[in-house]
Specification:
The chain is 48% helix and 15% strand. The protein is an alpha/beta fold. The mean pLDDT is 98. It has 17 helices and twelve strands. The protein has helices at residues 3-13, 18-36, 39-43, 46-51, 99-115, 136-150, 169-183, 203-220, 238-249, 272-283, 291-295, 327-335, 351-359, 367-370, 372-387, 393-415, 424-443; strands at 55-64, 70-81, 87-93, 122-127, 159-162, 230-233, 253-258, 262-265, 300-303, 315-317, 340-342, 363-365. The strands form two sheets. A seven-stranded mixed sheet has the order 9-8-7-6-10-11-12, sandwiched between helices. 52% of the residues are buried. Bound molecules: NADPH dihydro-nicotinamide-adenine-dinucleotide phosphate and (2Z)-2-iminopentanedioic acid.
Length: 446
């Protein structure tokens, strides 16, 4: 296998899908050597079957808004690979959603889920519907119309969706409720469910907390203590808010958060009181990050900006969306002394930024390793649903810590270079790949 040739062929067959090409290129360029050590893989053209999703469902979702107008959105589910377990991955509701984005996410999810040590294949779905500014009833009608199309393709042992951008507990509740009505069964077909109907304690916290646990593992390799370190976080959704919550517990100084309109900067670090306000503003009031400046005038608000060039930090944790940190941002971070980047979002750094971090030999954890705690805890939710029992928050948190330590160890094992630098990108991709490739090999051409 030659990365350039496989990639050129995929670009020819699937043009205009830049995010998908970007994710595939990063993985192929790091697994090429491992792949080529196994001529049996090439004999069955395993690489193409690993890159091209098993199947994609796409459908129109028609629903009626509060003014009685009929709205039409697109809905999708990309079932990428189920070699090691049922298809598993979130649903994204955002106006930017298209097949390129969902294909990159489903591809990444396959490797991420493999790393978790649990039995889950890779999938992703979503719609170009945006819940922002919609009433609860509009969101409910949309979710029901979306599931009216999708319910036949998913199931507890077939394909298990969950949340992602724009899909939180409210949306999962509405989708799961309608799924249950159509399928006439109460099973663990969604994760991220409410606690009263099969959800797992700690699932809301898991992605952000898991990223902090991964970061702690990375810092430990250098003997660095997180207390007092300046951390720039982007986003203010599920992943970002629980990242910040854990960082404050650990004694770090959180100097930024953001949303798609702008960034807040707290030069001396957010206090617990300020964070409590932000948590309620974002999770309960569904407000905007600009409102933090109105409440606490000493916290700066920069309209239309991302955090990376606004404030000096030791650690960056991009937790909003793909390609939100580019090469110039990476230069600014490195110039400011940033020595660790741990990605809460999926593919938040552009390829150029990733190369700059690796060239600078800083601690750099790609999303598929650092944010895997979310889907891992989804796997724990599936396990609890299968057993029809629920574990305490402490039990789930202990398992999450173990899983993140295990993912870190896999990255070190497969990513250590001759000068002892750990290339977590290579480590995560190779470790994730080996398990999936081995399972595909054993199961024949499907
Ligand atoms: P949320 O919808 O809860 O929050 C998303 C945050 O990112 C919001 O602050 C949002 O701002 C911001 N954002 C979204 N799109 C853009 C954009 N185009 N430009 C700038 N900011 C943007 O989503 P999550 O917190 O769940 O997801 C964040 C990231 O983490 C995504 O990359 C997701 O794939 C990834 N992830 C999520 C997991 C989970 O369990 N939820 C697990 C693993 C990864 P605004 O409110 O203005 O839209
Ligand atoms: O990107 C991700 O890993 C998620 N959005 C979580 C997926 C899941 O199934 O919990």
């Amino acid at each position: 296998m030659k990365t350039n040739e496989v990639l050129a062929d995929l670009k020819r067959r699937f043009p205009n899908e830049p995010e998908y090409h970007q994710a595939v290129e990063e993985v192929l360029s790091t697994i090429e050597d491992e792949y080529n050590r196994h001529p049996e893989y090439e004999r069955i053209n395993l690489i193409e079957r690993l890159c091209i999703p098993d199947r994609i469902f796409s459908f129109r979702v028609s629903w009626v808004d509060d003014k009685g107008r009929v709205q039409n959105n697109m809905g999708y589910r990309v079932q990428h690979n189920n070699a090691i377990g049922p298809y598993k991955g979130g649903i994204r509701f955002h106006s930017s959603v298209n097949l390129s984005i969902l294909k990159f996410l489903a591809f990444e999810q396959t490797f991420k889920n493999s790393l978790t040590t649990l039995a889950m294949g890779g999938a992703k779905g979503g719609s170009d519907f945006s819940p922002r500014g919609k009433s609860n009833m509009e969101v409910m009608r949309f979710c029901q119309a979306f599931i009216a199309e999708l319910w036949r393709q998913i199931g507890a042992d077939t394909d298990v969706p969950a949340g992602d951008i724009g899909v939180g507990a409210r949306e999962v509740g509405y989708m799961y409720g309608f799924y249950k009505k159509m399928a006439r069964e109460f099973t663990g077909t969604f994760t991220g469910k409410g606690i009263s109907f099969g959800g797992s304690l700690m699932r809301p916290e898991a992605t952000g907390y898991g990223n902090c646990y991964f970061l702690l593992n990375m810092l430990a390799t250098k003997g660095i203590d997180i207390a007092g370190k300046r951390v720039a976080v982007s986003g203010s959704g599920n992943v970002a808010t629980y990242t910040v919550q854990k960082l404050l517990q650990l004694g770090a100084k959180v100097v930024s958060m953001s949303d798609s309109n702008g960034t807040i900067i707290a030069r001396d670090g957010l206090t617990q009181e300020e964070f409590d306000y932000i948590f309620e503003l974002k999770n309960i009031m569904r407000g905007r990050i600009s409102e933090v400046h109105e409440q606490f005038p000493h916290i700066e608000y920069h309209d239309g900006c991302r955090p990376w060039r606004l404030v000096q930090c030791d650690i960056a944790m991009p937790s909003a969306t793909q390609n939100e940190l580019d090469g110039d941002d990476a230069d600014a971070l490195l110039a400011g002394g940033c020595f660790a980047v741990s990605e809460g979002a999926n593919m938040p750094s552009t390829a150029e930024a990733v190369h700059k971090f690796l060239d600078a030999r800083i601690l750099y954890a790609p999303g598929k390793a650092a944010n895997a705690g979310g889907v891992a805890t989804s796997g724990l939710e599936m396990a609890q649903n299968s057993q029809k029992l629920s574990w305490s928050a402490e039990e789930v948190d202990a398992k999450l810590r173990d899983i993140m330590a295990n993912i870190h160890a896999q990255c070190v094992r497969y990513g250590r270079e001759s000068d002892t630098y750990v290339n977590y990108v290579r480590g995560a991709n190779v470790a994730g790949f080996i398990k999936v490739a081995d399972a595909m090999m054993a199961q024949g051409v499907l």
